[in-house]
Amino acid sequence: MAAALAVCGTLVQCERPPYVQRDKDADAQSKDDADAQESWLVIRQAWCVCVDAQGIIIHVGPLAEAGEIVNGAQKVIRLEKHQMLCPGFIDTHIHAPQYSYTGTATDKPLMSWLQDYTFPAEKALQDVEKAAEVYERIVARTLRCGTTTAMYFGTLHNASSQVLADTCFRLGQRALVGKVSMDRNGQQGYQEADTKSALQDAENFVRNLKQSQAGKAGMALPVLTPRFIPTCTPELLRGLGDLARQYDCNVQSHISESLDEVEFSAALHPGEGSDAILFDAAGLLRKGAVMAHGVHMSDADFALLKARGAAIAHCPLSNFFFAHGYLPVAKLLKQGVLMGLGTDVAGGYSPSMFNAMRSAVLASKAGAIQARTAHLDGDHIIDYRHAFFLATLGGAQALDIDDKVGKLQVGMQFDALILDADAPGTNIDVFPRDSIEDVFQKLCTLGDDRNVIRVFTPVLLQAYMQKRAKLETETSKE
Ligand SMILES: [Zn+2]
């Protein structure tokens, strides 16, 4: 099969989660590389990834063995010394309508923050033109930062949330989009009229989005989105659980995020148990369900989540502002709890997954300091490699789309980035003694949107190839 595009140079990716032993029979290709044999994060130099015109990966392997397919490729990108190809970033928790006030409103605890900033901003996006403006900007911004997939909260409004999904598709970002459901404890003008109409709107949103995306390779998927326990009646939660089962849909919400939220939940449901137990009773803990934060979950809650195949969206930057605690990421990864990384815009002030990765490392350091002060045991530290896992393969597993994206292997879709440590205006200085591992660590630790020099999804690949054809500038070296 002829390749539309071949990218030749250094490839970095997580081939499996950390702390999980490799299946001896799996991945015969990896066995060729003795250095990578035991590693879950691999950096392969002089490698080659080839993609067909639909954006499906058709070859991954050593460049030395790929002469024929590379020579036959319509376009070849040969990476420079400090450039590398990696899977695109996956933001597992982000609120698109809150982007307009990102970088402000960092001064209040969660429950008053919602009332004073969030609900008014979301209410305003009932106007689809206003929504279109905000959504155009957040999708463009996150794509520039290397986010090829995002799991978005929209607003209560079906039409505006559909605009968000349409914007993602048009700009080439893979998206899982939720119309928010909330039938209590909102505010004047921003709460659904009653539970019945809330469920009808949620179902209409799922059906319409599925219909509008037919034949578009699953680039935008609907998500059932109860905001969180305090704003959803048990009837609404149960109805959404039924819809998740009926339409085989992803689910997203917030879970045991902060002390004020946990107190509010407990006051509404005395003696009924934790957020996790309440979600589970409604059938909302399932594969592809992504629950943000989880900072105040118990070991039993995490075990329940794991048993159901549901995942945590770890949002470390937001946690510093709201959560009154930290998530024990290293412990949960060792236990095999599914987990991705989220920016949680605007609770997290940065839409960049580079910042989310750095914040995850810092949060684990803060957790270790706290544990030491309290004389607790525990392995809390994660490093840039674990953060990169959460931002790529971990996110794909959390969203239950790891059969399509999260790593670059044959048969998967080409959601990928070219990172360049030497990009114009870069914040990074590479020295002659730096190894390729050092360059990758510098990209994770110091990188930003300037270092993302090319973003690919199947939609963006088609646009790229059309542009190349139009300009008639194909050469064997970019
Ligand atoms: Zn959130």
UniProtKB/TrEMBL annotation:
<protein>
    <recommendedName>
        <fullName>Guanine deaminase</fullName>
        <ecNumber>3.5.4.3</ecNumber>
    </recommendedName>
</protein>
<dbReference type="GO" id="GO:0008270">
    <property type="term" value="F:zinc ion binding"/>
</dbReference>
<feature type="domain" description="Amidohydrolase-related">
    <location>
        <begin position="84"/>
        <end position="455"/>
    </location>
</feature>
<dbReference type="InterPro" id="IPR051607">
    <property type="entry name" value="Metallo-dep_hydrolases"/>
</dbReference>
<dbReference type="GO" id="GO:0005829">
    <property type="term" value="C:cytosol"/>
</dbReference>
<keyword id="KW-0378">Hydrolase</keyword>
<dbReference type="InterPro" id="IPR014311">
    <property type="entry name" value="Guanine_deaminase"/>
</dbReference>
<dbReference type="GO" id="GO:0006147">
    <property type="term" value="P:guanine catabolic process"/>
</dbReference>
<dbReference type="InterPro" id="IPR006680">
    <property type="entry name" value="Amidohydro-rel"/>
</dbReference>
<dbReference type="InterPro" id="IPR032466">
    <property type="entry name" value="Metal_Hydrolase"/>
</dbReference>
<keyword id="KW-0479">Metal-binding</keyword>
<comment type="similarity">
    <text>Belongs to the metallo-dependent hydrolases superfamily. ATZ/TRZ family.</text>
</comment>
<comment type="pathway">
    <text>Purine metabolism; guanine degradation; xanthine from guanine: step 1/1.</text>
</comment>
<dbReference type="Pfam" id="PF01979">
    <property type="entry name" value="Amidohydro_1"/>
</dbReference>
<comment type="function">
    <text>Catalyzes the hydrolytic deamination of guanine, producing xanthine and ammonia.</text>
</comment>
<dbReference type="GO" id="GO:0008892">
    <property type="term" value="F:guanine deaminase activity"/>
</dbReference>
<dbReference type="InterPro" id="IPR011059">
    <property type="entry name" value="Metal-dep_hydrolase_composite"/>
</dbReference>
<keyword id="KW-0862">Zinc</keyword>
